Amino acid sequence: MIIKDITIKNFRSYYGINQLSLSKGLTLIIGDNGDGKTTLFEALEWLFDTSGENKHNSHISEKRKSELEIGESDEVVVGIRFEHDGEKEIEKSFSFEKKSENLVMINNYKFIGYFNEGAERIQCKGDILLNSCFETVIRKYCLFKGENELNVFDNETAALKTLVDTFSNIKQFDELADITSNFEQKSSNALSRELQNDKKISNQAREFDSQLKAITNEINYLKEELKQKEIAISDFTSRIDLLYKNQETLERHKDIKERIKGLQDKRAKLLAHSMCDYSTRLLDEHWILRAFPSIIKEFSTKVSALSKEKRKLYKQEIERKAREEGQKEAIDRIQKLANNTVPLPWNLPDEATMREMIDDEICKVCGRPAPKGSEAYEFMQKKLNEYLARIVAEANKETETNNTKETLFPNSYIDELHSLQIKTSGDDEKRISQISSEIYERLDFIAKRKAELNEVEEQLKKLQEEQNDLLILSGLSEEILDKNFTDLKGFYEAKSRNEKRLTEINMELKSKEIIRSEIKDKLSKLEPTSSMTKTYQKIHYAFEKIKKAFINAKEQNIINFIEMLEKESNNYLSKLNKNDFYGIIRIKKTIDNSAKIELYSENGTRIENPNGALKTTMYMSVLFAISQITTLKREQDYPLIFDAPTSSFGGFKEDTFYNVIDTIDKQCIIVTKDLINIDKSTGTKQLDYDTINKLSCKVYRIEKVTPFNDKDLSTIQTTIKPIKD
Asked: Least CB-packed of 235, 339, 529, 539 within 10 Å?
C-alpha cells in the first residue's frame, strides 16, 4: 500500500480543501508548534479508524462553522488515494448544518471506498476496503505520534506474539501442537492402563506410573513457581529500568523545583520591598521639603542682604547723629574697615562661639590658630569683653531710652530673621538637603526592585514551562517524580532474591526432568506379554516424539523471527546512525509473550540508558525492520507515518537522519518542526533550505495564516504549501 495523495476538507484548522501529493519514499511535512502538524496526523488516525461510526463536533473547522448562515451546511472530509493491487480510494466524511448561532447538527456520516474493476469504478464500504488492503494488525506498526509511542513492545501486551502470529506460520504449529498433545495424553493414559493390566509387569508398571505422576506434579509445581518468579523478575526489572530511565529526569526535576523555590522566595522579598507604603513616609511627610534647599539658600541670601542693609543704614544714622551732636565718641565707635566695607555686627560671633574659640585657642572664623598669649588670642579676649560690655551697655541704654525717643529700627524683625537664617543654615539645612536625596534613592531602590521582580517573574515562567515540558516528555506525574527513589535498593534486593530462587528452581527442574526421563525409560523398557500393549507403546512413543517436534518447531520459529527482526533492525540502526556510535540491538522474549528492545556494546555490555536520539533511532530501526518483514512476507509495502519523532535530535543529527531516510526505499511520511531556523536579528522563522535542498524527497510547509486572533479559534487556518517536489 502506497499513499499517493491526501485530501482534507474542513477538518479542524484545515479550512476548505487541502491536498498533499506524496512520494513513494520520504515526504517531509514541516510546521512549527501550533501550525497543525498533530491535526494532520490525527486526521489520518480518524480515517484509519474502522472501529465504528466516529464523528464529533470537534472535527469541524471553527472558521468554516463561523461563516455559515443559519440553515447552511458543509462537510468534513478526509480521504486518501493509494496504490494496492491497482489504484484505490477511501474517504470518510460527514455533513454539518448550522441550526442556530450556538447549534450545529451532524449527519450523513459516510465511509466509502472505491476500486477499479476493468474500466468500471466500483463503490464499496470504506472500512472493508481499508481492512483488506491495510489490516488493523499492520496499522499498529505504521502510525506513531511522538517519540514515546515508538517502542511497539511497550504499547501492547503480547506484542511479540502478535507479530509472530502475523508474519509467520506459527498458528499452524499451535494448532498441531495442541492436537498432538491431546493425542499424546490419551495414548499415555491408554498405555498406562494396558501396562497395569499385564500380569507380567503390572506391579512394576503401577510403581513406575505412581513415580511418574509424583515427579510430574513436582515438575508442574516448579514450572508454575518458575513462571511466577520470571514474572516477578520481569516486574522488578521494569521498575528498576523505569527508575534508571528517569533518574536524569528526577535530578532535573529536583533541580528545577529547587530553583523555582529559590525564585519564589526571592519574588516574595522583592514584592515586600516594591509594595511597601512609602507614600506616607516619603511623600506626605517629606515631599514638601524636597524643594527647600533652594528656598533656604534664597532665604539666606535675602536675609544677609537685609541685615547688611540694616547695618549700613544704622552706620549712616550714627554718623549723622555724630555730626549733628558733635559727639566724637560715637564716631570713634564706628569701626572703619578697608575699602570702606561694613563691619560685622557686634553680636557676631556670639558669646558662646567666642568662648569656644578662646578655649580651643583657634579662630573659627578664619581657621587660624590663636594660642594663649598671642595677639590673636588677646584680640578674641578683647572682643569677648567688648561683647559683654556691649550687652550691658545695650541693656542700660534700652532702659534709659525706653519710651523716650523713636529709634531707626524700633522692632527686631531683621534680627529675628537673621537668627532664623543662622538656625536653618546649620544641621537643619543639611537634614533638609538629605531629604531630596533620600526620596530619590528610595524611589530608585523601588524601581530597581520592580525591574528585578519582572526578571524573576520571567525566570519563573521559563522554569515552570521547562518543568511542564519535562513532565510531558517523561510521561510521569509530578507526584511520581517528587517521590524519593529509595525503593531502588528494595527492588534490587527483591529481584536478586527471585533470581537466586529462579536458579535453584532451574537446577531442581533439571534434576527432576532427569528423574522423570529415567522413569519413562524404565517404563519403555518393560516388556509386556500382550501384543496390543506393545502396539500402544509404539503409538504413544510416536505421539510423544511428534508433540516434542511441534513444540520445538514452534519455539524455533519464534527464535528465527527474533533473529530476523534483530538482523533487519541492526541494518537500519547502522544507517540511521551513520558516523556515530549505535551499538547492537538485541530483542529478548518476555514472559508475557512480548519482547524487550535492548542496546548492547559489541563486548556484551548492556547500554543501560542510551541518549534520546540513539533510543529514538533504535526504536525506529525496529519499526523499519517490521515494515521490511511485512513487505517480504506479504509482498506488499506499507507506509510509516510519524508525528514529531525526532524532538530529542540535535541539528547535526537531524541533517544526517533525514539524509539517510531519504535514501531508504520505503514510503515514510514525517510530520516535524525540524528544519526551521530562527533569525536572531529579526526573530523571524525560516526554513533550513541548505538542508532541504540536499534532499531528494518531497517537502511541504504547513503554517497558520496570519494575522489571527490568538484567543479566537475561528480565526485559525492552516495552509499547505509545497516547498520541494
From this structure: 339
